[in-house]
TrEMBL record:
Family matches, as SUPFAM superfamilies: Transposase IS200-like
Native source organism of the sequence: Candidatus Kaiserbacteria bacterium RIFCSPLOWO2_01_FULL_54_24
Gene Ontology BP terms: DNA transposition
InterPro entries hit by this protein: Transposase_17 (IPR002686), Transposase_17_sf (IPR036515)
Protein name: Transposase IS200-like domain-containing protein
Annotated ranges, domain Transposase IS200-like: 8-149
Molecular-function GO terms, alphabetical: DNA binding; transposase activity
Length: 223
């Protein structure tokens, strides 16, 4: 269950939220890209400012990291975006950084989504939830859990049983809206979203079987 303890500098947290009434919050590719863009800009202390269409091109901005200067307020360790919810692995760098990051990302994205779709009101289900990650082993379990979350899209019930593991692995490798490709050594502009700490946990890339076991362990510990 999510805790309500104060978030502390230097500690890792599993932060997540879902659409209000479990509605889809991403309807097309550019919606996912827009939230990733808010993540990139939101981890810096300055307010997010997007004035023109050129500013909205994700790959352009990710390749031009000088557009966001200054000390990060959080470190992003891993992430996964799903049609109706999101998962972040975040380390608080500056006091209040996680809360500020989440506020900037979700407020900015909601404004974008509502304007684009001619709607009003809340898009996400209240305040984000967070679990404190107490140690490195627990953090590794969480990273596997976050990266396997998209498996639910093509392998429902994977947390209990997975059929063709090789098929699941292939689909996860191809899923563009998580940080798993970076952990598998793929080169994308998206690497600048992530810090280095989470990568340093792994001596080698875990097998898909190990990731499944770790993810199930995390799920069991957080029932």
């Amino acid at each position: 269950m999510a805790n309500r303890k104060p978030i502390e500098v230097g500690e890792w947290y599993h932060c997540y939220n879902r659409g209000v009434d479990k509605r889809k919050v991403f309807l097309e590719e550019r919606d996912y890209d827009r939230l990733l863009l808010h993540m990139f800009l939101g981890k810096r202390p300055k307010p997010i400012q997007l004035f023109n269409e050129r500013d909205h091109r994700l790959v352009t901005i990710l390749r031009d990291s000088e557009k966001a200067t200054g000390l990060d307020i959080v470190e992003i360790g891993a992430y996964a975006l799903m049609p109706n919810h999101v998962h972040f692995v975040l380390k608080e760098i500056q006091e209040g950084g996680v809360a500020l990051f989440m506020q900037k990302v979700f407020t900015g994205y909601t404004m974008y989504f509502n304007q684009k779709n001619a709607r009003t009101g809340a898009l996400f289900a209240g305040t984000f939830k967070s679990n404190h990650i107490a140690d490195d082993r627990y953090l590794k379990h969480l990273i596997s859990y976050v990266h396997l979350n998209p498996a639910e899209l093509f392998e429902p019930g994977w947390k209990e049983k997975i059929g063709d593991l090789s098929k699941v692995e292939k689909r996860l490798r191809e899923y563009p809206y998580s940080s798993l490709p970076e952990f598998l050594g793929h080169t994308r502009p998206h690497r600048v979203l992530l810090g280095n700490s989470a990568f340093e946990l792994f001596d080698k890339v875990p097998t898909m079987g190990q990731m499944v076991r770790d993810a199930r362990t995390y799920e069991t510990l957080n029932v």
